[in-house]
Amino acid sequence: MSFLTRSQRETLTDVWLTGPATLALLIFIFLPIMIVTILSFSDYQFGARDLSWVGWENYITLFTSAIGQRAIVNTLIYVAIVIPFSVVFALLVAIGLHRMLDWAPALSRILRTVYFLPVAATLVAMAVAWQMLLHPNLGLVNKVLSTLGSAPQNWLSDRGLVLYTLAAIGIWQSVGYNMVLFLAGLSAIPEDIYEAAEVDGAGGAWARFWTVTWPMLGPTTLFVLVVTATNAFRVFETVATLTRGGPAFASETLVYALYREGFVYFKAGYASAITVIFFAILLTLTLAQMRLVERRVHYR
Amino acid sequence: MNAIPTLELGDVTRRFGEQTVLDSISLAIPPGSFTSLLGASGCGKSTTLRIMAGLDRPTAGAVRLEGQEVSALTAHERNIAMVFQSYALYPHLTVAQNIALPLTMKSLSAFGRLPLLGTLIPGTAAARKEIQTKVSAAAEMLGLSHLLDRKPGTLSGGQKQRVALGRALVRDPVLFLLDEPLSNLDARLRVQMRAELVALHRRTGKPFVYVTHDQAEAMAMSDQVIVMIKGSIAQAGTPRELYERPTSLAVAEFVGTHAINLITPQQGAGEILSSAARAILGVRPEHVVPAPHGSFIAKLRSVEYLGSEIVLTLCTEQGVELKSIAPGTFEPPLQGDSVRLSFDPTCTHLFHPETGARIGAPECRS
Ligand SMILES: Nc1ncnc2c1ncn2[C@@H]1O[C@H](COP(=O)(O)OP(=O)(O)OP(=O)(O)O)[C@@H](O)[C@H]1O
Ligand SMILES: [Mg+2]
Questions:
Q1: Helices and strands counted in chain B (H then E)
Q2: Which residues of B touch A190 (CB under 8 A)?
Q3: What is the ipTM of this complex?
Q4: Are B353 and B280 in contact (CB under 8 A)?
Q5: What distance in Å separates the CA atoms of residue A255 and residue A235, rounded to the nearest whole number?
C-alpha cells in the first residue's frame, strides 16, 4: 500500500476510529433535531400526506394558550420546589450518614442503600406503590393523618394539591442520588482541615459547616444543582402514571404535554415546538454543567 | 528557679483499640523553650502532639497547661497554635483570609463574618481593620506580603508552609506545635526554613514543640530533645546530653550524623577497651581516628571522600565493620592495607548487652 503517504494513512485511521461514532451522532441526534426544528414551523400531523408552513404559530400557541402556559408554569413550579428541597435534604442526610460512619459504619452503609433505592428502582413500579400509599380512602398516608387528627386529603385529585404531591415524590426520588454525590464530596474533604478549623476556633458544628464543609462542597453542590434541575425538567413518569396531567391540567408538565400532543393527538408540528423549547432548556443546563465540571477540578 | 512548665504531660497513655500507641508518657515543656519530639515513623509523635493540642484525648493521664488540668478543653480553648504536616490551608480562601481566620472567628460575630451584611453590624469595621493590621504584620514577618491575594493552590510548598505559620502567628498563642513542618520541602529550603523557624522562635519568645524524625534538625534547633521510641520516651535532654550521654543503645543509634560503631563482647569489645569486656562498646566514628601509635589495627575496606572529612570503612581482626572519620587532609593508604586507629576512652559508651541500658562509663568531653 505504498501509493498512500504516511499522513494520508494516518488520516484514514482517524476517520476509521471516529467515523462510526460521528455518523451515529449525526444520524441519531443531529438529524432528528433538525427534522424536529423544521417540523415545529409546520402543522404536520402524523400520518398526514402533506403539511403547510405556519411560521411561529406553534410557539405562539405554546406560550399564549392557557394549557401551554399551564405546562410551562407547572414545570417551573415543580423544578423550583424539587431543586431546593432535594438538595438540602440530600446534604443533611449525607452529613448525617458521613458522621455516622465514625460510630456506626454498618448502619450508615445500610441507610445509604435504603436512600439510594428510589434511584435504582423503576419509577413506574414505584408510582404504583405511591398510588396505593396516597389512595384517598385506603392509603396509608391518609390513615396516618386521620389518626393524628388531621383531615384526609385527595393527594392526586385535588387541583390545588396534585402538583405538590408530585413534587414531593420527585424529591423522594432524587434525594438518594444527590446524597451519594454529596457523600463523595464529603469524604474528599481532608480531615486535617477540620482539625485546623478546630484549632482556629471554628470547631462548633455551625462554624465547622460554614468555614469548611460548605465552601469545600461548593463544586459538588453546583454539580448537584445542575443534575437535579435537568432531571426535574424531565419529569414525566409520575405524571403519566399517577395523574395524566389532571385533574383539569393541574399537573400538566412540558414533557407530558409533548407526549400527549405528539402521541395521543398526533399533532407532530406542535409537539415538535415543545420539543425544541425543552431541548433549549436542557442544552443550556448541560452547557452550564460542562463548564462547572471543568471548573470543579481546582480552586483558583 | 523552677518556673511552672507551659505544658506538661503526666503519665499519658493512648490506646487505639488493642494497640497501645503511647505508653505512660511524661514530659514538660518549659516556658520559652524549643523542644523537639524526635522519633522514627509511627512511634507516636503526632499522637503526642495532637493530645497536647486537644485534638485527641488521652486514654489515661493528665495534660496540664500552665499548671491547670486542660483535658476537658477544646483545642481552641487551650489557645495553642498548630502547624500541620500537610499545611491544612483552606483552599477556597486567599492567603490573607487564611491567616486572618483565627482572628475573624474570635473577634467577629457570626453575622459580622458575612460578606455584605457584616458591614452593617456596629464595631465590625473597626475589628476588620485591626485584623488586617495584624495579618499584614504577620505576612511582613514571613515575607508573604506580595502573595496575600493568592489562593493556596497557586503557592509553592515553602510558601504554603509560611502561610500555615502565619495562621499560627497571628493568634498570639501560649504554645506553638509544629508537626514535621519541613518534611515536604526540598533539602535547601529545609535548611533555610530551619533558620527562619529558630529566628521566629526567638522573636515570639513562646515555647515551640517541634516534631521531626530528622535527628540533625532536632539537634540543630532545640534546647530540649525528647527521643521517642515505640510509644515511650527513651530520653529527654539537651542535644549535648543526648550526644554525650545517651541513656540507652537505641538513643545512641538514633542520635549523631554518622551511625555509632557498636562492638559486642563476642566481637572483641574487651580487647579494644578492657572495661568493655562484658558490655556493648559504642564509639562514634568521629572519635575513632587513624593515628601512627593507635591502640588497635583494622583493615581498610573503602574510602568516602567528603571534602572536609573522609569516612573510612574498616574491618577489625574479628571481622567487625567499623567507621572512622579522618580530617579531609588525611592521605588514606591503599585499600586492604592495615591502619592503626586510636580513640579517646572518655568518648566511649557502654551498654548492657541484654537491656541496652547505659552502664556507667567515663563522660565524653571532647
Ligand atoms: N486514629 C487512629 N486509629 C488507629 N491507630 C492510629 C490512629 N492514629 C494513629 N494510630 C497509630 O498510632 C501509631 C502512631 O501514630 P503517629 O501518627 O503518632 O506516628 P508518628 O510518630 O507521628 O509517625 P510519622 O512520623 O509517620 O508521622 C501508628 O502505629 C498509627 O497506626
Ligand atoms: Mg506524624
A1: 9, 19
A2: 86, 88
A3: 0.81
A4: yes
A5: 7
| Substitution site in B14, B23, B46, B178 for ligand 1 pocket (most atoms within 8 Å of beta carbon) | B46
> How many A/B residue pairs have CB atoms within 8 Å?
70
- Angle at CA B205, nearest 5°, toward B200 and B206? 95
CA distance A226 to B64: 52
User: For residue B252, is pLDDT > 50?
Assistant: yes
Burial class (CB in 10 A: 0-12, 13-18, 19+), B267: middle
Q: What are the residues of chain A with a beta carbon less than 8 Å away from any beta carbon of chain B?
A: 190, 192-193, 195-203, 206-207, 211-212, 215-216, 218, 298-300
Rg, chain B, Cα only: 25
3-state secondary structure chain A: CCCCCHHHHHHHHHHHHHHHHHHHHHHHHHHHHHHHHHHCCECCCCCCCCCCECCCHHHHHHHHCHHHHHHHHHHHHHHHHHHHHHHHHHHHHHHHHHHHHHHCHHHHHHHHHHHHHHHHCCHHHHHHHHHHHCCCCCCHHHHHHHHCCCCCCCCCCCCCCHHHHHHHHHHHHHHHHHHHHHHHHHHCCCHHHHHHHHHCCCCCHHHHHHHHHHHHHHHHHHHHHHHHHHHHHCCCHHHHHHHCCCCCCCCCCHHHHHHHHHHHCCCHHHHHHHHHHHHHHHHHHHHHHHHHHHHCCCCC
Residue B207: what pLDDT?
94
What are the residues whose beta carbons fall under 8 Å from the beta carbon of A184, sequence distance 6 or more? Answer: A220
Q: Among B76, B153, B167, select the one facing A203 at the smallest CB separation.
A: B76
Quick check: A199 and B110 CB within 8 A?
no
Cα–Cα separations (whole angstroms), residue B196 to B141, B162, B165 = 10, 10, 11
Cell numbers found for residue A84: 431546593
The shortest CB-CB distance from A298 to any of B50, B105, B153 is to B153
Nearest to A179 by CA among A109, A103, A104: A109
Torsion of CA A145, A149, A152, A155, to 10 degrees: -40
Domains contained in chain A, CATH given: 63-296 (1.10.3720.10)
| Percentage, residues of chain B above pLDDT 70 | 93
> Which residues have C-beta within 8 Å of that of residue B323, sequence separation ≥ 6?
B258, B259, B261, B285, B288, B311, B312, B313, B314
Q: Are strands B232-237 and B321-327 parallel, antiparallel or unpaired?
A: unpaired
Q: Alpha-carbon distance A233 to A251, whole Å?
A: 13
- DSSP for B205-272? ---EEEEES-HHHHHHH-SEEEEEETTEEEEEE-HHHHHH--SBHHHHHHSSSSPPEEE-GGGTHHHH
Nearest ligand to the C-alpha of residue B41? 1
Distance from CA of A177 to the nearest CA of B (A): 26
CA contacts within 13 A on the Cβ side of A78: 31
pLDDT of A20 strictly over 80: yes
Question: Which residue of chain B comes nearest to A297, CA vs CA?
Answer: B153
| Highest mean pLDDT (candidates A133-137, A217-221, B12-16, B154-158) | B12-16
Angle at A272 between CA A270 and CA A277, to 5 degrees: 100
The position carrying cell 407526549 is A259
Helix (H) / strand (E) containing B106 = helix B95-107
Average pLDDT estimate for B205-233: 92
Q: Which ligand is nearest to the CA of B213?
A: 1
- Give pTM, 2 decimals: 0.79
